[in-house]
Write a structure and sequence with these properties.
This protein has 13 helices and eleven strands. By secondary structure, it is α/β, with parallel strands linked by helices. The chain has three domains: 143 residues, Globins (Globin-like); 95 residues, Elongation Factor Tu (Ef-tu), domain 3, CATH 2.40.30; 117 residues, Rossmann fold. The longest helix is centred in the middle third of the chain and has 31 residues.
Amino acid sequence: MSQKTIDIVKATAPAVAAHAEEITTLFYKTMFANSPAAKAFFNTANQQEGRQAKALAASIIAYATHIDDLGALTEAIELIVTKHCGLQVLPEHYPIVHDNLLIAVAQVLGDAITPEVGAAWSEAVNFLAKVLYQAEEEKYKAAEARSGGWRGWKEFTVSGIDSASTNCKTFTFVPKEGSVCDSGFDFTPGQYLSVSVDGETPRHYTVTSAPGQKALQITTKRLDGGAVSTFMHDKLSVGDSIKLSPPFGPFAVKPDTKSAVLLSAGIGMTPMKAFLDTHGALVTKAVHVDRNAASAPFYAHFEEKNAGKNQFIFTETGGRPDMAAVSASLVKEGGLDHRYYVCGPTGFMQKTVHGLVAAGVPRSQIVWEAFSPQLSCPV
């Protein structure tokens, strides 16, 4: 990327930032009209509620601001790359994004987009696309090379469906060409499988089986209006086939973690189960918020494997907890020498993270994951 392009993008970044959500909202409408097949990569609910447009707007602003120092965007790029891998985004998809994004920028900013400015943004978008699809190819290769690994969408057979709580089910999958994977499936605890159901955008669900097992499991919550979760809970049966893409995702226990505190709510308990099963010796405390014990997935599992170190907060009897106060209490009780892992609804995570920071926990010691577009979920 030329220095001239860098200079122009940085100079025009404020103008783009001022209209970023307008641009990204128009971009999606334009792209879906010009390339209807692109809809297959985007969750309808996230589109309708504007989360996808907000996430892309945040990405564009961050890129334009740090275009001369992409090292500052390492975490954001990693997040985007892993999401793309779960969806099986390929290099040939990027020109569609490039063309429709530049159309939206030109329409929103009008005469401000001179030929010179347009050329600079075109080069910048293509440069970022190359960074992304090269990183994605490395992850595709790694996912294929690991034990039990594969590339792309693969047919699996549902070998088991079990109740995990009043509104959650655990689904077990084995490769369609055989009953089990004799070598066991290798992946990083906390990663997710992507599930493809005909006619719906793929959804990501945390792998709740442990690495090395001969089958893969996910645990999903039946959501009102959730097309894929409803299909899985109401229509999917043992013996049915389903398409999965390999485990991906950046939410994982950091290698330098000496002590872990897990904080979750609702279905956010799924990665915590994965962490507990593999890194149980590091878990000094697990806090989970749910309606009651019957609705909490893995309640009995945690009480067995993490006995004496759990704090379950049930809203049915006590109402919604003040997570800032809960966070402050945890820090007062256990001190600052822990890494905190947080997963749950947006409001829960925001209050929890802000409470931890207010209690003195450095941001670098807090790791979180949103089950919606993470860049639209400021925590």
